[in-house]
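Q: Predict the assembly, please.
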Amino acid sequence: MFKGDFIKNLPKIYGTYTGGFLVFIILMAIAEQAGVSAKNIGVMFVAFTVCIYALIGYLSRTINVDAYYVAGRQVPTVFNGMATAADWMSGASFVALAGGVYFGGYTYMAFLVGWTGGYVLVATLMAPYLRKFGCYTVPDFIGTRYGGNLVRACSVFVLFIASFTYVTAQINATGTIASRALGIPFEAGVWVGLVSILICSMLGGMRAVTWTQVAQYIVLIIAYLIPVFWISSNVGGGIFPHLMLGDEVARLGELEQQFGLVKNSAADMKAAGVPGGLKYISGSHSGVPEGGMAVWKYLSLAICMMVGTASLPHILMRYFTTPSVRAARKSVAWSLFFIFLLYSSAPMLATLSKLALMDPNLPTGIIGKSISEVQSIEWVQRWSEVKQVFIADFNGDGILQLNEWFMRGDVVVLATPEVAGLPFVISGLVFAGGMAAAMSTADGLVLAISNALSHDIYYKIIDPKADTAKRLLVARVLLVIIGAAGAYIASFRLTSILGSVAWAFDFAMSGLFFPLVLGVWWKRATRQGAIAGIIAGIVSGTLYLTWVFPKFSVPMWGGVNTPFLGIDHLRFGLIGAPICLVVMVVVSLMTKEPSPSVQKMVDDTRIPTGKPILGKQ
Amino acid sequence: MSNKDAYWEKTKNHMFVTLALWAFFSLVVFMFGSELNTMSFLGYPLAYYMTAQGSLLAFVIILFWTANKQEKIDEEHGFSERGDN
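A: Predicted assembly structure:
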């Protein structure tokens, strides 16, 4: 069917795949009409897509080091863009982002700006130069540029902390989705998720992860956009919501006035027995909060997420796979384009979902109706059973007020299709999309960690004479161990999905951002400077996190502390990164400047043509 | 000044221009959030539009523009990889 080179046939292969997936959706729709139960449709969606990923993972198996670590450096620009977008958009982006906008409004959307703006930093400061360098991993760059095992080990340590906090959240998300779609307990869902993740990455490393991520991107974007457009036309938002929801946003402002934005006291919520993790609307949807502190809160969150984006190894290493420096630059642009398609839709979904629930003129509206009536609605019953929605009649008038309706953020994405009266086949599709998003990010992260450990710690430091077979064996064993450790921790549900995702950005920016940037842009940066900077950044950032986050500060510091300048636990990178910069510059200037050969290496890194610094390793 | 130095000088300036545009759309715009929200675009309050869609779109455009511009700088100085894609 496909003649010639695999790379040349990619558009055809993925075109066929997309067509096949659409046909599958139609078949499922027919099955639903024919009376197949909603539960079975959900199972088939998740099982079918996961089997496809596993098949791609198996077909991409390899025994070549270059293919295992950097997909043979032959991934075309646009496909690398899709793979990066899938790598980037996690279970949290897919499932929780719209929910975050739903509850947080304008203030929360600092995350949107942060998680996209960071790519400008990636493209201008990092990606093309790291590609030219020819490294296999991010610590590989730091270890070679600054020279020495200690600096290499320090950067592996930061990578490990940042990526591992992130990966537990992702495995947690695969577990949640697998358990809901397949109807199995959460703990079992986590292990099902882990096995799927490992099948995709173990045999083929980066090559397998790349081609499964492209497939996962296609599923997740279809699964996100179809419901948004469909819901929009169902609730009267127009066929192209992104350009047409101005009136709806204004209407939400009116409804907020009408119902009133009331803050519940913690005591009231406790007395009513509101389950943990459920939220209610207490802030304005499009209004900008007044005051300098509010502006600073917005900007500081955006800065942390942007700088963190540019320091996360699992993203940077995607640009090691392009054929050229120029392709790496273009690929960053394509990545952001594919990310934009989903991120710009999340606020639209939040707007539509909020309006569907709040507007008394719509048949789906529930706020302002009698509580007994609302409790008899089918989807309310179903989601109440699993403690995802909750009603507390604080004023005892029997009417549902805005502040009496509690919901988990995820419900916005997972239940809005049902609420807006879409067939169940769409909900099944959404499950498949969420699974794709969580799996693709978990794959990239697990691979980033195990590659750094196997290449930088095992091969470069412990056993530089290891042959190819042994190196790849170690890489695969580590992959399984890291995945299992992540799943083990995730099965305890230690953190909420979003808290820990933001932390990964702060850890990465505290310890990696300046060593990476200065490694290219400042020839005077020395080994001692880098070591001191990484250690100072990650230690100060982590200490500040323990000081500001109540769960840590009470046992460690004996009490709850007020954040310094509004820098709370989501923003602790703002402490770590500047300290890293100052220490790195001061120590670099105090030590002897790098040798001429290192300076020449930096010069060569800056120019797109010519041999890479590190050839085949 | 050698060709390499001239190339790096231009690349550096280009980096600063790109980062200035980036800072405008990611930071400056949102310093004036409440003022901008009194204006409207496509029927949306402007600051809401920027954070939901406008700045995101601006970043995409900046990235394609900056990659093309950098390729031109590469070519001018004979460091272009055209052809080995």
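Helices of chain B lie at 3-31, 33-36, 46-76. Residues 37 and 45 of chain B are 5 Å apart (CA to CA).
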